[in-house]
Known about the structure:
The complex is a heterodimer of chains A (456) and B (484).
Chain A (H helix, E strand, L loop, with lengths): L15 H11 L4 H4 L21 H12 L9 E2 L12 H7 L2 H4 L11 H18 L3 E2 L6 H16 L3 E5 L4 H11 L5 E5 L1 E2 L2 E2 L1 H7 L4 E8 L12 H5 L6 E6 L17 E5 L15 E5 L12 E5 L5 E5 L6 H4 L12 H38 L5 E2 L9 E5 L4 H9 L3 E2 L2 E2 L8 E5 L6 H14 L3
Parallel strand pairs in A: 1-15, 3-4, 3-7, 7-8, 8-9
Antiparallel strand pairs in A: 2-10, 5-6, 9-10, 11-12, 13-14, 14-17, 16-17
Chain B lengths: L47 H12 L22 H7 L2 H4 L11 H18 L3 E3 L5 H18 L7 E5 L5 H9 L2 E5 L9 H7 L4 E7 L11 H9 L4 E6 L18 E4 L19 E3 L11 E5 L2 E5 L17 H37 L15 E4 L1 H7 L3 H10 L6 E2 L8 E4 L7 H20 L1 H6 L11 H6 L10
Parallel strand pairs in B: 2-3, 2-4, 4-5, 5-6
Antiparallel strand pairs in B: 1-7, 6-7, 8-9, 10-12, 11-12
Helix pairs in contact in B: 2-9, 4-9, 5-6, 9-12
Amino acid sequence: MPDTKGEKMPYISNTDAERREMLARIGVGSFAELIAAIPEELRLKQSLNLPEALSELEISSLIHDRTCGNVCVQNANSFLGAGVYDHFIPAAVDTIVSRPEFFTAYTPYQAEVSQGTLQYIYEYQTMICELTGMEIANASMYDGASAIAEAILMSLRKNKLPKAILPATLHPEYVKVIKAYTEGNGVELVTFASKDGVADLADLAAKMDDSVGCVVVQNPNFFGNLEPVTRFKEIVNTNPKALLIAAVDPISLGILIPPAQYGADIAVGEGQALGNSMYMGGPLFGFFATKLDMARSMPGRIVGGTLDKEGKRAYALTLQTREQHIRREKATSNICSNESLCVLAATVYLSLIGREGLVEVATQSAQKAHYLADTLSALPGFALAWPLTPFFKEFTLTTPVPAEQIIRDMLNSGIYAGVDLQPFGHERKLLVAVTEKKTKAQLDEFADALREMNYE
Amino acid sequence: MSKTIFEYSSSGRKGVTLPRRDIDTPLEKMIPAEQLRQKPARLPEVSELDAMRHYIGLSHKNHFIEKGLYPLGSCTMKYNPKLHEALVRHSCFNNLHPYQPECTLQGSLEILYDLQEALAEISGMHKVTLQPVAGAQGEFTGIKIVAAYHKAKGNHHKTRIIIPDSAHGTNPATCALVGFEPVELKSNSRGRCDLDHLRSIVDDRTAGFMLTNPNTLGLFEDQIEEIAEIIHSVDGLIYMDGANLNALLGIVQPGKIGFDVMHFNLHKTFTTPHGGGGPGCGPVGVVEKLAPFLPVPMIGKNEDGYFFDYAHAETSIGKVHTFYGNFAIQLRAYIYIMTLGAEGLRRVSENAVINANYLMALLKDHFHIQYPEYCMHEFVADSSWQKKEYGVSTLDIAKRLLDKGYHAPTVYFPLIVPEAMMVEPTETESKQSLDAFAAAMIEIAQECREHPELLHDAPLNTPVRRVDDVRAVKVLDPVFPIQE
């Protein structure tokens, strides 16, 4: 091995002298002897073709150059949502999440030196149950989409039925993930129609039969609308074995009826809005909660309270016999981690925002969204897509010109107008999201900018 | 004993200040009455200081890399550079929305494009998707691609995937999730795949083969060329579980030695933090004939710049994540690769291998090693001597290590070694820290002889004593009982 004097050896501690000493202790003369098991003809003969190594200073300035190629929502007036939301995050959240004690730890396999991680997951599980009205939550899934997919798989495993019914108002990206997760397992996916931007319950009722293992509802749905959630259970119960899966926005649960109260058997959803930055859509995390009698069918990690040998309160991973490292191909899922650090952010967020704070965040988001909806739908050529359908913090506008054009025009004024629904099959529809972060002035600025365009 | 955050609650106490309402429409005017929540969720009511004391207090109960060696085999607990944390928190990264117009995301897309290219070069694969958010989701994506390949070819008879008995538990679980039947392959006396057994179980039903290389014993699967020939002869595909890619950087390109599809663990090989169990990132690389099946979107580049590329949507397996995967994790891995370059990455693997062999040399007289040849980045020792002579198990030894300020190795895995302790020191540890860890292990070996009861009793000085995980199952307590 050549000496490395003068070469960059980032994050490697040993010196050449130490390496020589170590090789001698191993009993070899060179590194090459250690990898003699790799047949010569399989080895790379030349150096990898990668850019030259950069120093800390150089990479920092390269990254800063790249950031200049981005325009973040902080420097714009953004109304983007559709699954990822720009809610307020108290600074203290990052103080906790940035602690190496949390972010450089592994999955809490050795409980005695992982009580920090285990306890915050236990607190998180409690908070999710409190929000959804459920009895048990897992330590999180990869995102809202995979949480719904795993909920479907769990339901069908539980009641041994082949069919899952999805609403036409479900987020289309979730549908893609659900398809990928369920195909190959003999799962039959059926979609029921929408009417006035929400579920067409008559169509759902018509599609219920003995083979239906579960029905999914998303509330608020992809278009921001509030589904008639209280009327689902009765229809789902026409097959007593069928389970109701509710995919919900956790912020909305500050003011909206919790899923357990309208008879949902499994509550899932995208958790990013709880204290996690948007990061262009990842990392996200999915929450997953259900009733105690289904605990053993759940996917993912679960933390439980217990005692140590002196009788002191302690926490441990529990019900691990469901998991892949024990059950292998018989496991409830192949997931062997969670999005722990995102869960930590959510736990600290919910602690800080508190009982009244979550109600306030949800209320202000709804109030501001409704104000903007009223203002925009009064502009010539604009209208709410479904004027009589209630919504929460996000609404769908019918636009006088293709939404793409509006998005482009507004970008010139530093406004992200919303999500164009044309790629999802809805012409001249714009999905507009509002959070508590918006001021009345910012809402008016958007309306003024649109008015000035005189689309009609 | 620490209280839960709920026990700090005091009615009306606040941890944040929110803006006052500049619009104040009553809820009843916006939301139908039957959809309104009757009682607020009983979240904690604490001050910011309460919350900070509580969570910082919890943090003190964790083992973490900056505290001490974390030799979990297969997990690659190397040092996570703090530069990455500083750079990813730039507001032009963490305040990006996934549905922003592409023209406002050019900086991020350029990074992701370059990362796709770099991972393809490192692995020798044709194309790489960054979308899967964990190693297990990478496996799922890769095996979905195997299924899509056979479906496209009309190979409906291909229903089985062969997996060695030394494999990670996720491999068979993944096959089951995709709808394949896993078939177990035996290891031989050298700790490698038993080729006679392989030949006897390969047939027309074989859709593929999942292999970890180096395997979970830390040994390079040196018969990979023959394996590839056997599997490819029945039109099977070879999947590489890339959990141990950190041993091969700049030394072997899996895509050039017979593997058709593989996942990377950015949180292992490319040092993105494990985060207490995630978020991770599990990109997947494929050879050319499998590229049409990769998830959408890929990151593309043309004369106008960078874009989300859905061109192959028709043949793609679809999506495994709502958006584009864990961007904040991808970003850290990119920074790491750019900091190391080709030479630095090769040195990572060299030093990982030297450190593992050095540690094995220090320990081999004190602990049994079933496969005592030179290892790659990790090795598997076991406590069979201690178990037989003194009744001390691997679990006891693992718990005693916690007392000495170390995390335990991965224990009882791989399943083919009784009382296994899988040790991976990583390249970021110095000789001094390996010497100290070996000294602690040797001290424990001595304690096994002299005070075996001490080991049954361990750990003695951790935040809690040995945790009763049987009780955690029997008396299931997943939720704190909040008092009104």
